[in-house]
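We treat protein structure as text, and this decision shapes the records that our systems exchange. The tokens are whole numbers drawn from a learned vocabulary of local backbone shapes. One such record is reproduced below, unchanged from the form in which we store it:
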Amino acid sequence: MQEGLGADALQILRDKFKTLDSVGPVNAASVAEENGGDREQEQQAAFQNAAVLFEALDNR
């Protein structure tokens, strides 16, 4: 596992997107809803997009 500021920042992001109801997807859904988007759909999309990103980083 990598160490340093970048690794710390990545861990913070992982924590914020750990579950569908974590702060990251919830906040993304709020922003989407404020701009006319579908809250549930955007929350799910944010969670899934983060999962894809983290998986890609883990497999590099």
